[in-house]
């Protein structure tokens, strides 16, 4: 599904009062920059349209940014990503958007959310699933950036972890983190660990006694 962001070039830059007036008119100030454009572009977005789109996308979702000048003429149409969102400290409303415009044939790095699916075996045995990283830094060509990375934790036992090196990725996609970095683990509660140790000891003792008895008979 293509996500299109319509924007207009903004002539008002750096003037707080003017920018506040724009926001009062239902407009969000924005900027677009990156290797895909010669210079940063100051933009405005219709708040109602953007907020509807914003609910459906994330930082790793490829967007089609369409920019028109004040006369309505299209001056840019390019793939883009949401780089940063500024919120009002009091109202929590979106105040400003940064778009990153990559160069088509050059790799880029971007944060991609991680979704953990399934119920770990270790959790069913009383362990606690601890997510260490909810997102990872991915390096790939712009058109290969995954919107989300899914990791199945169903086979994860007590005390076991999934590390960066364990994740299967699409061709041309790399996680830019240390291979040994832990993404998710099943923590063993202290009480559960003691119970397991006791149970193991009890199951071994009869074998030792039986063996000793056999040696006496011989």
UniProtKB/TrEMBL annotation:
Q: Name one GO molecular function term.
A: structural constituent of ribosome
Q: Which residue ranges does the record assign to the Large ribosomal subunit protein bL25 beta domain? A: 107-190
Domain Large ribosomal subunit protein bL25 L25 span(s) in chain numbering: 6-99
Keyword hit for ATP-binding: no
- Which GO biological-process labels does this protein carry? translation
Q: Where is this region: Disordered?
A: 197-218
Q: NCBIfam families, from UniProt?
A: bL25_bact_ctc (TIGR00731)
General function of this protein = This is one of the proteins that binds to the 5S RNA in the ribosome where it forms part of the central protuberance.
Q: PANTHER family from the entry? A: RIBOSOMAL PROTEIN L25/GLN-TRNA SYNTHETASE, ANTI-CODON-BINDING DOMAIN-CONTAINING PROTEIN, RIBOSOMAL PROTEIN L25_GLN-TRNA SYNTHETASE, ANTI-CODON-BINDING DOMAIN-CONTAINING PROTEIN
What name is this protein filed under?
Answer: Large ribosomal subunit protein bL25
Q: What is the species of this protein?
A: Fervidobacterium gondwanense DSM 13020
Q: What gene does the UniProt entry assign to this protein?
A: rplY
């Amino acid at each position: 599904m293509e996500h299109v962001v319509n924007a207009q070039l903004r002539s008002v830059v750096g003037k707080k009062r003017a920018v506040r007036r724009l926001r009062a008119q239902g407009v969000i100030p924005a900027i677009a920059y990156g290797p895909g454009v010669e210079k940063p572009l100051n933009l405005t977005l219709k708040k109602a349209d953007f907020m509807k789109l914003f609910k459906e996308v994330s930082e790793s979702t490829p967007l089609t940014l369409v920019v028109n000048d004040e006369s309505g003429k299209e001056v840019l149409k390019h793939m883009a990503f949401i780089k940063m969102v500024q919120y009002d400290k009091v109202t929590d409303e979106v105040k400003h958007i940064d778009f990153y415009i990559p160069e088509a044939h050059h790799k880029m790095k971007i944060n991609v959310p991680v979704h953990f699916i399934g119920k770990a075996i270790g959790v069913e045995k009383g362990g606690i699933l601890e997510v260490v990283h909810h997102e990872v830094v991915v390096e790939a060509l712009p058109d290969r950036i995954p919107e989300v990375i899914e990791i199945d934790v169903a086979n994860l036992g007590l005390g076991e972890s999934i590390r960066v090196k364990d994740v299967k990725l699409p061709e041309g996609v790399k996680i830019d983190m240390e291979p040994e970095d832990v993404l998710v683990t099943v923590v063993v509660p202290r009480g559960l660990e003691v119970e397991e140790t006791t149970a193991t000891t009890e199951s071994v003792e009869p074998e030792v006694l039986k063996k000793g008895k056999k040696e006496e008979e011989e």
